[in-house]
Amino acid sequence: MSAIRRVQQWATFGRMWYLYDAKWQNPFDSADKIKEYISGTHKPIYHPLNDCGDHVVVINSRHIALPGMEWERRVYFHHTGYPGGASWTLAWELHRKDPTLVVRKAVYSKLDKNLLRRGKMARLHIFADDEVPNSILENLSGQIRQLRAVPKRLDHYTDEEIKSFPRIFDWPKDYVIPN
Amino acid sequence: MSLPKAFQLLRFTTYVAPRRLISATACTYGIKSRWQMPYRVTLKNRMKEMEKKGLLPTNARSDFIEWNYDSEIYAFGKRLHEEFDESLLRQALIDPSYITRETLRQQELGVEVPALQMSGNSELSTEGKDIIFDYATKFVRATHRVLPEEGVSALVDYLTSEELLSEIGHGIGLKDLILTEEYPPSQVTVVNAFQSVVAVLNRSSGLSRCHIFVKDFVLTQLVGKNIYDIWKIEDPVSILSNILLQNGREAFEPRLVFQSGKNTIQAVYQVAVYCEKQFMGTGMKWYGETVNAAVEQAAWDALSRLFQTTEAVSPIPFEKPEQLNLNDNKNMPIDNWSIDRASNIVMC
């Protein structure tokens, strides 16, 4: 193989490391996106037998946003295998126990059900907050765009920004704003 | 004959092979009698041994009785859609070794002065070789105008190499047409015959027609080939530095432009070569590869970009050879290669 072909080979099959900020994101819609990256379907060279999935580092999984009444209505089922071993855990309970599990289970259930599933899950690294070990941060080479940009709340603006914000009209000077 | 009547009758009835006592099931499932397999194995081994000793008969087409050389010669031109002078074509397909053998054979048969009215293809071969070499050189120069002269000569050497030309000769069916001492004909014999065919075409239909033939059969062998597999660049780093120096540019500077998975075994680094803050080429470094090798790849990539021979360049315009500017001007040599001059050359 000539030198150019070897370079092409490595440029094609080198593993990328993507960062995904799950803050205020829907974990189930995010899982749709993340699964493409960890199984490699976002690449033109994808083939089921081609091990070309990338790594995804998910941060801020504690701050995910479930849609509608999902926190109270979504139930995670588990059975110990013994009689009477069934248990049903609500999403908010599970999230309180382990803030990475909702995202992990969402991605796991979206992946194809075959022997490659565990291997793909091994390429998913979830962190509850934005504190990620340096050894993993150094690996990063790209970022996945969030589904929706996190909106800026009024209390995140500084007083100066609020004051300098353009207004439609000015109150009369002698107008008293009732509190 | 004093044979009993029953035996006499046997002569006229069809012969029935005595069946062994194999069960009906075995017969249905195709079990053959016990001698068949060893018999076939023996035959196969014998065949292999004969092949090793060269005792197998040649499969020359002319060994068969319905071989018609005249019609084959006629069909040869028709197949290629070319008009050949028939007597010249016959001469082109005669290897000198064939004349020697025929002379000897006739002398053995008692003919003192063999009256052989044939001459070999040596002269035609040289003529054809020159035509191919000349046109290939001009064509490659015209289609790769920025490529250094060293690269051009490497490509032309490849196009006129014995392996390639003999392969083409086999492709157009010269193997059975050549009159030669040995069969199958050797590489050199096929190459000589092919070059002679080119020369005959030149004499029969003119040089322009001959050039089209050479273009179609020889030059198109460049399609899908990587130039740098044919022209091996030794030490691209020093060549690139030399070119930059010659053109009064600053020395190039390698930079790390991309990396992924730094703490893993599958770490990849992309190195790029910059000259005066201008991107020139890139290379990769991966596990087990040194930084120097990555820089060498980047320099090599920069060279291929300078010479306009990347994979993205438009294909060689074989359809419009008349638009090419074929002349005897040499390309720039690699020791005196000018970036400014190259940027002024417009490729078609």
Automatic annotation (TrEMBL), chain A:
CDD domains reported for this sequence: Ribosomal_L13
Swiss-Prot/TrEMBL GO biological process terms? negative regulation of translation; translation
GO molecular function terms attached to this record = mRNA binding; protein serine/threonine kinase activity; structural constituent of ribosome
Kindly state which keywords UniProt assigns to this record, in alphabetical order: Ribonucleoprotein, Ribosomal protein, Transferase
Q: Top-level EC class, please?
A: transferase
Q: Which Pfam families match?
A: Ribosomal_L13
What EC identifiers does the entry list? 2.7.11.1
Q: Name the InterPro entries on file.
A: Ribosomal_uL13, Ribosomal_uL13_bac-type, Ribosomal_uL13_sf
UniProt-listed SUPFAM superfamilies: Ribosomal protein L13 (SSF52161)
One term under GO cellular component: mitochondrial large ribosomal subunit
Family of the protein in this entry: Belongs to the universal ribosomal protein uL13 family.
State the protein's name: 54S ribosomal protein L13
Give the organism the record lists: Halocaridina rubra (Hawaiian red shrimp)
UniProtKB/TrEMBL annotation, chain B:
Q: Which InterPro entries match?
A: Ribosomal_mL44_DSRM_metazoa, RM44_endonuclase, RNase_III_sf
Primary localization class, coarse: mitochondrion
The subcellular location is:
Mitochondrion
What range(s) does the Large ribosomal subunit protein mL44 dsRNA binding domain occupy? Answer: 231-332
Return one GO MF term. ribonuclease III activity
Q: The Large ribosomal subunit protein mL44 endonuclease domain covers which part of the protein?
A: 68-201
Tell me which positions the record assigns to the signal sequence: none
Which Pfam families has this protein been placed in?
DSRM_MRPL44, RM44_endonuclase
**Gene3D superfamilies of this UniProt entry?**
3.30.160.20, Ribonuclease III domain
Question: A Gene Ontology biological process annotation?
Answer: RNA processing
Top-rank taxon, per record: Eukaryota
| Entry GO terms, CC | mitochondrion; ribonucleoprotein complex; ribosome
- What keywords were assigned to this record? Mitochondrion, Ribonucleoprotein, Ribosomal protein, Transit peptide
UniProt similarity note = Belongs to the ribonuclease III family. Mitochondrion-specific ribosomal protein mL44 subfamily.
Q: What is this protein called?
A: Large ribosomal subunit protein mL44
Q: What is the lineage of its organism?
A: Eukaryota, Metazoa, Ecdysozoa, Arthropoda, Crustacea
